[in-house]
Here is the input.
Amino acid sequence: MWLVRPVKMDDLQGVLGISGKQGARLSSTLPKQEDALAAKIEHSVRSFAGKNGAGESARFLFVLQNTDTGRIHGVAGIDARAGNGQPFYNYRRDALIHASHELGVSRRVEVLYPSHALTDASLLCAFAIDPALRGTEAFELLSRARLMFIAEHREWFSRRMVVEIQGVQTSSGEVPFWDSLGRHFFDMDFETADQHSGLLSKTFIAELMPPNPVYVTLLSSAAQEALGQPHELTRPTYELLEHEGFSAGCYVDIFDAGPVLEARTDSLRTVVTSHRAVLHANHDDEGDTCLISAGRGATFRCTLTPVGETLRKEIRVPVKTWKNLECSSGDDVRIAPL
Here is the structure.
């Protein structure tokens, strides 16, 4: 049975193994270095416990666990505030009109403006899963469990939710947008710059990136084509988030130009359709498969379960579901359709 729960320090090696399996930069905020990953897990543990230091924003990491084997097969995160107290940089796509009345010429030119307007929106991040599970119910559980957590702790998150989707990268590891723009200012390869972004202060972006608008026509044709386009391997994630109510806006990732999806938190499908109910026993596995979560903070648990006929605000689920949620009959839970 699959279970999503808060990460613990004991999960360090399991999460490290997942981050090492991703390849092709399928997670930009999940470090592959043990010390850095341990620091992120420690931050998450403090956040779930409500023990963040002064000025420290909450950052939550969840793991996907096979309860039969105990193995970790995925990880996903939420930053309560994008940027975590520092600017959260993106490029904003816009246009300028260049015109000459004397020549009778008018041309619309696309421009990229450095922006940190999305700073302090809540951010879905750090999604990584065992490649064999992409497109399965476990994949959907890991992604949507975060939204069940947000629905249960709505006061902890902002009214606006964003998520960065990985941009175009070739099979040989080339990143067209980075190669055409960022490389000229950072004097480092893409992977190094991306690691700095995830591990260090974001001020280095402001210090090194050009503060002026970037004319898209000056970029390579490959970079122009990559603007706002997701990596082919992130397509299932992109589609799942669209189904939740996210949509691509005018912002793109500052390194690879991948799309930044945006949504109003209170309009997300899982937040809207989830509701609280009282748990009771079902002696078989019949019923529609649903998401079910229980607990708050560090005791949060989320899994998939068949749900039998409901009476009033009561639901009936197999007893094995109780055990995984660490619940008993009569406890309050949250439920949402798959």
User: Anything to note?
Assistant: The radius of gyration is 22 Å. The longest strand covers residues 90-100. The mean pLDDT is 88. The chain has ten helices and 15 strands.
